[in-house]
User: Which sequence fits this backbone?
């Protein structure tokens, strides 16, 4: 396998971004994420961290864009699917949220978080019997 300096820099930058975020330095973490994404626009881990930072700071549109990109680049990324489904719940887009949750449960059938968020989305859509099944799964 050939050494890729951009990939190595992205990994180091992402590690630094995670550390900054864990230490409560969200603005610094966001800047580091953006630098990683300049070099590696398809870096799903950086997109997820950016989405979490955006959600924490009340920037739903930025989170939405980052999560959409993450799902486009890695369609079976359960974390991105569920975060996007939760975000869509706040926008009352339950049908799309249900579809994203179903994709997450297909990727990880035993993931309790996926079943829980699916149940919530189904409740939002007034599909109570289906929601109960999701909660029980």
Assistant:
């Amino acid at each position: 396998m050939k050494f890729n300096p951009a990939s190595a820099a992205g990994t180091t930058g992402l590690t630094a971004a995670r550390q900054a975020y864990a230490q409560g330095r969200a603005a610094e973490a966001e800047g580091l994420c953006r630098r990683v994404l300049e070099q590696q626009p398809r870096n799903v881990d950086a997109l997820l961290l950016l989405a979490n930072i955006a959600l924490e700071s009340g920037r739903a549109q930025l989170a939405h864009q980052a999560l959409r990109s993450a799902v486009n680049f890695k369609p079976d990324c359960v974390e991105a699917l569920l975060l996007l489904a939760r975000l869509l719940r706040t926008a009352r887009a339950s049908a799309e949220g249900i579809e994203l949750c179903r994709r997450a449960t297909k990727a990880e059938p035993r993931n309790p978080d996926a079943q829980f968020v699916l149940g919530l989305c189904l409740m939002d859509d007034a599909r109570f019997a289906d929601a109960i099944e999701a909660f029980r799964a």
Observations:
- The two ends are 42 Å apart (CA to CA).
- Residues 1-8 have pLDDT under 50 and may be disordered.
